[in-house]
Fold:
Amino acid sequence: MELAPLEPSLHLKDVRYEIRGPLSRRALELERSGYDIIKLNIGNPGAFGFDMPDTMRRAIVENLRASEAYCHQKGIFPAREAVVMEQQSRGVMNVTAEEVFIGNGVSELIMMCMRALLNPGDEVLVPSPDYPLWTASVVIHGGKALHYPCSPDNNFYPDPEAIRAQITPRTRALVIINPNNPTGAVYPLSLLRELVSIAEEYGLIIFADEIYGHMTYEKASFIPLATLVNHTLCGTFSGLSKIYRACGLRVGWLSFSGELGHAKPYLQALELLASLRLCSNVPGQWAVQTAIGGYQSIRDLVLPGGRLYESRRAIIDACAASKYLYVNAPEGAMYAFVGISSEIFPDFDDQQFAMDLLEQKHVLLAPGVSFNVPYRNYFRMTLLPTAEQMREVFKRIEDLLRDYELQRRRATGGMQ
Structure:
């Protein structure tokens, strides 16, 4: 008997994560055929030769014997207490270890937060462009993602009035990604205060994705959002993956502050979900205290002469020298969101461009449409390669865009 097609859950119907989608699968096929692919689609420091601090590695090794049993569902106490101490050093005083959850990366914690919060039809305000897991986590749990604009013309900063106009009685939360992935924007104090004011006025939970905190360049200054929130619940996300270059450990944390009294049922629901998965990865948790309390080596990478700084400079210079490309200089994080001239290419298709670049030039990028934007002339690239590698990448991009322009001229009889 022939079996009927095994259909996936309807929950996944509108869920997308193109960063690891068809382009990534095609890149793997090309690699298996013998091609070297420059992969700029994912912020994965270890794949580019970045090591986590040795002190973190030693902390894991020295505590392996203590890692063989399940730990508390919220995480080991030293890790949670380290997060508390970090928040208190910032002036966020109403956090205890009871308000801290350790997860298998920030990704798991995002999913848990939405699972505990949303009923069918509930809404969450998510930036556009966004890190697509945020939209996916809302949709997969029956909610609706309301994408608030962060326009390239406004340095990719949110528009507070546009956010206010989207709020309905079903809106439950406001997501703020700062420093921002994918754009590299770092929000100023005045803007953050406006966003907090709106959330407090409407009683929205604030989810502050700060996984790239302290990864800033030049004069940009990172301001932890929890320091501004008093009259609503604020959940702050961070982890070991980016600042501490330890993606593979899968250790993230979530601390709650602000108005906690009314949030007790929600926090209990989160603890229930944490209990159902028993606990997060134990060995990696032993690195948290050492990471937060130790020397912050990320500073060496983001200052002039540091590898991230110099790769960022290579991108800025390449775009400035190009007639096809432009970029808002990243103020933070490890990405650039690069635009392609719509005057030269009015019908540009970012997905087709990304596939052509992969097939012809063996460079893997993430097309802008992956990040829930309405336009089709952007792509995201990570800053992790060396400056020399970055210059080679832009040479290949320029070659492809030059071919595009020549093809367009031929198709229009040389009138363009």
Remarks:
- The longest strand covers residues 171-177.
- The chain has a mean pLDDT of 95.
